[in-house]
Amino acid sequence: MIVGESEDDKMIDKITAMVADIDGTLLPKGGKMGPRTLAAIQRLHKEGVLFGIASGRPLDKRITARAKEWGLGFEFDMQIGMNGGDMWDKYHDVVNHYHLLKPDTMKSIMSWMKDFDINAISYINGYEDIWCLRMDRVMEESVKRNHSHIELVSVDKLCTVATGKIEVHYDPDDPELEKRINEAIRVHQEPSWAAVKTFFGTVEFMDPAVNKGLALKNFSKDNNIPLNEIIAFGDMDNDLGLLKDAGWGVCLQNGCDACKKEADAVTEFTVDDDGVGRYLEDHWLNCHK
Length: 289
Prior knowledge:
Structural class: alpha/beta
Oligomer: single chain
């Protein structure tokens, strides 16, 4: 654990754990982690700070393998998946699932979403088994990268198994389509679901009680780590709960306006320029030698 020695940057005084979103935060989507970010995380962990990831992806062996792929030199201490619907930590070694989206709610959402030019996805067994409406670039990449088994199903079948989320993809370069989808979400909004934009051309429907902050609070409680000793990094709408509930929430410079408004701080650099690593160097590591 690291104990702070100054309040120059109005940071929290103690960091016991660090939790970060992946795509757009720790590394560019489909890219590699910057060397300064990698080095900063390794130094923190060596000094006793727990490190975990908070993703919209389901928790499975592929997410766990990212620690080795990135060259961290250690395994994750905790993992949040499905935007906060899943949580695992090494001390309990059990994946907890929170507030699955019920089939009736899924049917209600898809009754109007199916009219748009979209692909809807449900993770039946992590990346092992995925149900979707059609093959597209995202699904082809998942088969190539994750060796996923893809089953093309009807809208009716898609809505038969409770899930952590319905993930909807649409053309990110079609602003008119996005505008129509956003308006439809506003018109059809119900208390039984919440819609969160997680990346350009992607919106995810979940139980409204689910967010990354929910999982973070459960991790905090289960392991007796005060929230005010946790620093978190994120960039998109699905990181809002994470940044709000952590003791110190930091949004990347490339993040959305909502996250910048919610965060305690915004990095000086984007994810492409080692935003997380540079922030930790300038506002913590170089101040607490």
